[in-house]
Amino acid sequence: xxxxxxxxxxxxxxxxxxxxxxxxxxxxxxxxxxxxxxxxxxxxxxxxxxxxxxxxxxxxxxxxxxxxxxxxxxx
Length: 75
Hints:
By secondary structure, the protein is mostly helical. The protein has helices at 3-20, 25-32, 36-43, 51-60, 65-69.
């Protein structure tokens, strides 16, 4: 799998997890204290977030970091 496809799968996973938690993008960015355009780019697979950022996202969504970065989407 190429990097672009991987980032898009992770972004889709974030979008699904956010939806399952009943959170809007605004709520997520407020909780993570990040710029909305940055988070939006991550969900669309347009940017590569740092591992520390993903750690905070995983904590917010109550999943392990390894579950978050696994390219399989199993819900």
